[in-house]
Amino acid sequence: MQTGLVQTMNETNRTRGWIDGERAIVFQRCETCAHSWYFWRTFCPNCGASEPESLKASGSGQVYALSMVHRPPSQELRAHVPYLIVLVDADEGFRLMAHGESSLTIGDRVQARFVEFGPRLMPFFGRTSVSD
Amino acid sequence: MSWVTGVGLTPFGELPHSSTLHLMSDAAQAALDDAGLERGEIDGLICGYSTTMPHLMLSTLFAEHFGIRPRYAHVMLVGGATGFAMAMAAHLVVESGAARHILVVAGENRLTGQGRDSAIQTLAQVGHVDYEVPFGATIPAYYGLVASRYMYEHGVQERDLAQLAVLMRLNALMHPGSHFRSPIDVEAVLASTPIASPLKLLDCCPVSDGGAAFIISRDLTRAHNVKIRGAAQAHTFQHVSAAPSLSQFGAGASSAEALAAARVTLADIEYAAIYDSFTITLAILLEEIGLAPRGGAGKLAAEGHFSHDGKLALNTHGGLLSYGHCGVGGAMAHLVETQLQLTGRADGRQAGSPRLALLHGDGGVLSSHVSMVLEAP
């Protein structure tokens, strides 16, 4: 190969869980530096190592932040309001956005299930125990 | 060395029949007049993007329209941080010698040029297209998430945030160009329509039409020129899901570096121009920069600390929350007002005679930061 010319990474084999229609939350982990993250890539954003492993998460974690949306971004979502958007710290060491039960509070232990929202199945967190 | 030699600002609000180029032109002409410069003397042009006119080459389009032939021109896009980022770029470019007088301009008919849903959806795209936007997230929701965590960690109450909305409205009442023209109180903020908890309508800036411009020059043109003493940036993430911290966003690092570049300290600052897209934005930025203790910005505002006759006047034009937010021009209005304050030209809003001002803008979800220190002539 010519110097300076790189082979572009193949993105056709990507596995992103619920985004691609599976009932799963998928995250990635770097075998070189042990960094874990959520947004799918062909390399580790921490150390640059290629071919990180893609893993299915357990779906359990803890509520980090939340916001109840009353004003939706589009007419199609008007039927769903109000809906709770949460940031959850997954037990595997990455953070994700999802929906959650309206009674959740910060610090609650939660478990994901998959619920229809518009045309797709998306992660929805329910409480397993309240915050300390 | 560089100077802000001229400023121009249109009224913000609902401006029917306005357009991006029209608003940019009005603001640019006002800035030229203020600097005492003719079109032929402008040899650099930096423009902010416009969501209602997403042209590939907005800077050269504007140059042709306005009637200038710059030696240096481009557009910038770093969300709400764009206005101050353009000012910093112009500062660096004139210092390099590549241009002598740079026109920095942005304008947008963001309110009347598109439907409300369209504006909200365009803005929501700063979220992740696959991992965030499908949840029906909006800009207020991203900031609502930030607010929930920040309030939890630092003991902030909704009533504290409301104080900042009330202050910005009081300031706006003193400016003839502001979008909002009626007074509000804390109870009105707390009772306003829920948008994305804990944020309510009056915790959110409006969508406005408007334009703003300034000229950054290598040499003084008039007595009322203001010196750029230092500038710095920090960009720590893009998506709220990927933020390393919801208390340390980069504003502290960016402002500390700008102060160091200016060889001054926070204690020397006598006027503050701080981005305020939401009440929580203003609270976090004031507190992370160090202009208020953690959790204490609302309390200081209630005590009059940030009022135009207080210890540290803040956004005396009313900020994004009440002067209005037309996109890139929104934060530029903060710089225009700072220039007027530092030159004693803010009329009834004049906050004593400040010598040094700190400006801070953020883009995305508190993810892109630009800080500047300006000095009176």
Write the layout of secondary structure elements.
The complex is a heterodimer of chains A (132) and B (377).
Chain A: E1 26-29, E2 36-37, E3 53-56, E4 60-69, E5 83-90, E6 95-100, E7 109-117, E8 120-129
Chain B: E1 2-9, H1 20-35, E2 44-48, H2 58-66, E3 72-76, H3 82-96, E4 101-109, H4 116-124, H5 139-154, H6 158-172, H7 186-191, E5 194-196, E6 199-200, E7 209-217, E8 226-235, H8 251-262, E9 271-274, H9 279-289, H10 297-302, E10 313-314, H11 319-323, H12 328-342, E11 356-363, E12 368-375
Parallel strand pairs in B: 2-3, 2-4, 9-10, 9-11
Antiparallel strand pairs in B: 1-7, 1-8, 4-7, 5-6, 8-12, 11-12
Helix pairs in contact in B: 6-9
Give helix % range of chain A. under 10%
Q: Helix segment count of chain B?
A: 12
Largest sheet of chain B: 10 strands, mixed
Anisotropy-based shape of chain B? globular
Query: Biggest β-sheet of chain A: count, sense, barrel?
Result: 5 strands, mixed, barrel
State the CATH topology of the domain at 2-113 and 208-217 in chain B. Peroxisomal Thiolase, Chain A, domain 1
Helix proportion of chain B: 25-40%
- The assembly state of the depicted protein chains is heterodimer
Number of strands of chain B: 12
Strand content of chain B: 15-25%
Structural class, from helix and strand content of chain A? Answer: mainly beta
